Automatic annotation (TrEMBL), chain A:
GO terms for cellular component: endomembrane system; periplasmic space. This is NitT/TauT family transport system substrate-binding protein. Belongs to the bacterial solute-binding protein SsuA/TauA family. CDD domains: PBP2_NrtA_CpmA_like. InterPro entries: NrtA/CpmA_ABC-bd_dom. Pfam families: NMT1_2. It comes from Roseimicrobium gellanilyticum. It is found in: Endomembrane system; Periplasm. Its main location: membrane.
From TrEMBL, chain B:
The chain crosses the membrane at residues 7-31, 67-88, 100-118, 124-145, 185-211, 223-242. One of its GO terms (biological process) is alkanesulfonate transmembrane transport. It comes from Roseimicrobium gellanilyticum. SUPFAM superfamilies: MetI-like. It comes from the Bacteria. Pfam families: BPD_transp_1. Keywords: Cell membrane, Membrane, Transmembrane, Transmembrane helix, Transport. This is NitT/TauT family transport system permease protein. InterPro entries: MetI-like (IPR000515), MetI-like_sf (IPR035906).
Length: 348, 258
């Protein structure tokens, strides 16, 4: 056969075959289309975003189908870019609170409508290190996830409360998944990010907790649920359903340890692709390591983040609570009932 | 070299080198006592785990799909563009500088742009792979025309060939060997950027996605290395396929007898 006919025949067969295979294996071709475009919400596999998959899972189990579509990202930069540029495809996302404020300052029409969690962050040091209290961090190198992370502002606050300043430590930015390895080889002296990356170092036996958020900044918030203003205007019902769903998931998660273990198992396997033992560890040791109740938008809490963000140089201070928050979807927290969902126990 | 020596040399020696490297890897992990970095056997078990969940085939298909479309689009745009740039001096003067500016930009730098333009579905990784493989193809095709021996052209023109005829019967065959070399390099690059390209994939998986995802999964460096090994092996397979193209008569005549 000549080169041209070989290329043509082989090439066409290859393109057709790989396209059809990809379509059937990965893109769910041939499956019946959903009646309506679902409301997509971005998240990354951290426990701060846990109510996202939990709401989806319980919905599927109780209604047969979820009303929204969780979209998983590997990191905040990609999540933020998608959220910024395609409000039609992804109108809502879980996102770092200071980052949401900063985007708002830069004119992006988004608003926080609910919180994602409370607490759920730790500062870890190597178990053999001589760092035992916050004062010992002087002159040390600490890895933080991003300039816009609230974990960085938490360090500001912790140092300030002890009469120190940020110039007493050296901060480096590092993706949280790389932090456990960096701490184990002691490339940095301390690491801090959302869970489960911190618990990983503890489970593997070389990390020691320097502080949990409750020791430094009780009821800490790192991530919020942010929604594009278009969606707030035009897809109100769906946003409300999402906020209600998250509120019920939060109550469900915090109402019993069995529910937490069920969530750890399901989310690790079906959504996060992580070791279930790790998520269960985070959700139970101690049980208030991360909390999912008390998720209303409280002006005072967000203004504290705002002030620290300005001090930390990531916010200009040009936006107020009214600009970046829309609490109209929040109902009275005491009236929220947990999902009436009994965990079936996942097939292990 | 005797026939039996050559078979031994062709397969035995590389296998020996591989075995030595795997041994060095295994014992470095054992001796250093690390609990984080996996041994070769743990990586093999990781690959087995992926295969048993049906993920290995899915991921390989997803990556091959994106590389195929990115690469094919790059050929469809790159070869005609390169030939035109090689043939028309004015076009070369006008367009070559911008190509040389765009060429050194890493696909990773294009990730934000890809998300802004295409979102996070397959179009974005395909675009990144297209970009990465486009420039080597354009440069190789341009150079192929510009380096073509003038004697072919003159001879053809003496026989009265011009226009499409000249292009089909002289220019294309004369430049084909160099273009194929360019395609081979470009395919290598296309496969190389699959990890960067799939950093943004939110559905459909892929071998590059596997590596990013395994980082998020805590201590699953066995899967990270498993992804690397699969990418390496499939890359080797793709290159072997491309090399077969060079055996065709249409390509060989321009290469010179070796």
């Amino acid at each position: 056969m000549s080169l041209r006919s070989t290329l043509l025949i082989f090439g066409l067969i290859w393109i057709a075959a790989i396209t059809v295979l990809h379509g059937t294996l990965n893109l769910e071709w041939g499956k019946p289309e959903a009646k309506k475009e679902k409301f997509a919400v971005g998240f990354i596999p951290v426990t701060c975003h846990l109510t996202c998959p939990v709401t989806d899972f319980i919905n599927q189990n109780m209604e047969g189908e979820s009303f929204f579509k969780p979209m998983r990202f590997s990191g905040f930069p990609e999540l933020k870019e998608m959220f910024l540029s395609h409000p039609d495809k992804m109108p809502a996302t879980f996102i770092l609170a200071p980052l949401a404020m900063s985007l708002r300052e830069q004119g992006v029409p988004i608003k926080m409508v609910y919180l994602g969690h409370r607490d759920g962050t730790a500062m870890m040091v190597h178990k053999d290190s001589n760092i035992f209290k916050i004062e010992d961090l002087k002159g040390k190198t600490i890895a933080v996830p991003s300039r816009f992370s609230n974990q960085r502002l938490l360090i500001f606050k912790a140092l300030k409360d002890r009469g120190m300043s940020i110039s007493d430590v050296k901060l480096v930015e590092m993706p949280p998944p790389d932090m456990p390895a960096a701490l184990s080889v002691r490339a940095v002296d301390a690491v801090t990010s959302g869970e489960p990356f911190m618990a990983q170092t503890e489970m593997d036996g070389y990390g020691r907790i320097l502080y949990l958020t409750k020791d430094v900044w009780p009821n800490f918030i790192s991530c919020v649920l942010a929604v594009h203003e278009d969606a707030i205007k035009n897809r109100r019902e769906e946003v409300q359903a999402l906020v209600d769903g998250i509120a019920k998931s939060g109550k469900w998660l915090d109402s019993s340890m069995d529910n937490r273990m069920e969530a750890g198992e399901v989310v690790a396997k079906k959504y996060y692709n992580q070791n279930p033992e790790l998520l269960k560890f985070v959700l139970s040791k101690p049980p208030d390591r991360v909390k999912y109740t008390n998720l209303n938008l409280v002006r005072k809490d967000l203004e504290e983040i705002e002030a620290l963000g300005k001090e930390g140089g990531v916010l200009k201070g040009t936006v107020r609570f009214e600009d970046y928050a829309d609490p109209s979807f929040v109902t009275d927290d005491t009236q929220v009932k947990p999902w009436d969902y009994k965990g079936k126990g996942v097939q292990r | 070299m005797k026939a039996k020596d050559s078979i031994l040399a062709r397969f035995g020696l590389p296998l020996l080198v591989a075995a030595v490297l795997l041994g060095v890897w295994h014992f470095s992990v054992v001796i250093s006592g690390t609990t984080i970095f996996p041994t070769p056997w743990e990586v093999v078990k990781g690959i087995g785990e992926l295969a048993s969940h049906g993920l290995l085939v899915k991921y390989i298909v997803a990556s091959l799909f994106r590389v195929t479309w990115g690469f094919v689009l790059a050929i469809l745009v790159g070869v005609p563009l390169g030939l035109a740039l090689g043939w028309f001096d004015r076009a070369f003067m006008a367009i070559n500088p911008i190509i040389q500016v765009l060429r050194p930009i890493s696909p990773i730098a294009w990730i934000p742009v890809a998300i802004l333009w295409f979102g996070t579905h397959d179009a974005a990784p395909v675009f990144l792979i297209f970009l990465a493989s486009l420039f080597p193809i354009v440069v190789a095709s341009t150079a192929a025309v510009r380096n073509m021996q003038l004697v072919y052209l003159r001879a053809a023109q003496n026989f009265g060939l011009s226009g499409i005829q000249l292009f089909r019967r002289v220019i294309l065959p004369a430049t084909l060997p160099q273009i194929i070399t360019g395609l081979r390099i470009a395919l290598g690059i296309a496969w190389l950027v699959v990890v960067a390209a799939e950093m943004i994939a939110t559905q459909g998986g892929g071998l590059g996605y596997l590596i990013i995802d395994a980082r998020n999964a805590g201590k699953r460096y066995d899967l990270v290395v498993a992804g690397m090994v699969m990418i390496g092996l499939i890359g080797l397979g793709l290159d072997l396929l491309m090399r077969r193209l060079e055996k065709f008569d249409e390509v060989r005549w321009g290469v010179g007898q070796r």
